[in-house]
Amino acid sequence: MSRNSTTRLQHKSKLLSDNIPRPIISRFMGNVCRWLPPVAIALVTFWLFSPSLRNEFVDWDDYSNLVNNPHYRGLGWSQLRWMFTTFHLGPYQPLSWVTFGLDYLIWGINPVGYHLTNLILHTANCLLLFLWLRAFTQKLWPSALVSGLFAWHPIHVESVAWIAERKDVLSALFFMLTLWAYAGYVERRGERERGAWSVEREA
User: Fold this and answer.
1) pLDDT in tens, 95-110
2) What's the per-residue H, E or C state across the chain?
3) How many domains is the chain partitioned into structurally?
4) 0.85 exceeded by pTM
């Protein structure tokens, strides 16, 4: 290739790069860096725990709770009344029973659907933790690291892979939502206090 041709190609490349507004590139890269950690956490979490979808009902108390229990099957008045009044096998867990009733309406007695619900709840908990940490600390990668350690720690295997432990991942969901609610309250209160302080200074 001649020197003139090389010069022309370099000139064209420069023109093309100059035609792309740099703020657009910066904004695109910023969005990639912003959304890459939560997407990676969700995908890796789902992949790591996906073998649980091949599980059957666990022969500890899944059979007593679900397979041999007709009372939770549906979300009619009789089922809801049973869910909110029963201490079946010990714990009082009406919201867990409601999710089991919904699973039954969608999946019947197919264990894949029940395991899938546990897996979705756990993945959602990990994402909520990441989003809360990022909002609370304003630190992207430390929040991703802590959320990843929480998501992939072996201590969660039992809660995800054992259908009857739905109460664990479900209570974690409400805990994460409580953190979000409290963070929103603190932020709103801070804005009110800053506004009042500004008014006082202007006065």
Assistant:
1) 999 999 999 999 999 9
2) CCHHHHHHHHHHHHHHHHHCCHHHHHHHHHHHHHHHHHHHHHHHHHHHHHHHHHCCCCCCCHHHHHHCCCCCCCCCHHHHHHHCCCCCCCCCCHHHHHHHHHHHHHHCCCHHHHHHHHHHHHHHHHHHHHHHHHHHHCCHHHHHHHHHHHHHCHHHHHHHHCHHHHHHHHHHHHHHHHHHHHHHHHHHHHHHHHHHHHHHHHC
3) 1
4) no
